[in-house]
Design goal:
This protein is α/β, with parallel strands linked by helices. 39% of the residues lie in helices and 22% in strands. It has a five-stranded parallel beta sheet, with helices on both faces.
Amino acid sequence: MTLKHLSKVLNIILIDDDVIQLFLNEIILKENSIISEIVSFSIPAAALEYIYKLKDTDFENQIILLDLNMPVMTGWEVLENLKIKYGESLPSNAKICILSSSDLTEDINKSKKYKIVSGFYTKPLDKLKVDKILETFIS
């Protein structure tokens, strides 16, 4: 199955404390026609509150792009909170991908310990990375 043959549209949740990065990521993501909705959060706690209110059916076709290095609540803390709430897997076929400025091997390896994480990508987000993220989602 290719991205062109995906029967449903995808929804994206962006979590990054850098509002400029959020804005740029939204622009890049909006270029892809299979992405229906993009919801951005610069405050991780607000993102968690939003995610916790989603019904299981709302998780279908949801991709969360999560930054790691944030001052008030790190991406690691977000992952721990999601793991406490949902266990080793999110409802439906939702996916979490790390989108970080870090390319440290220790961060990449640590992310692999979370079964709810589907991939690790370094900033900046570009069309090629978006395609890889979406391909991960459909595979």
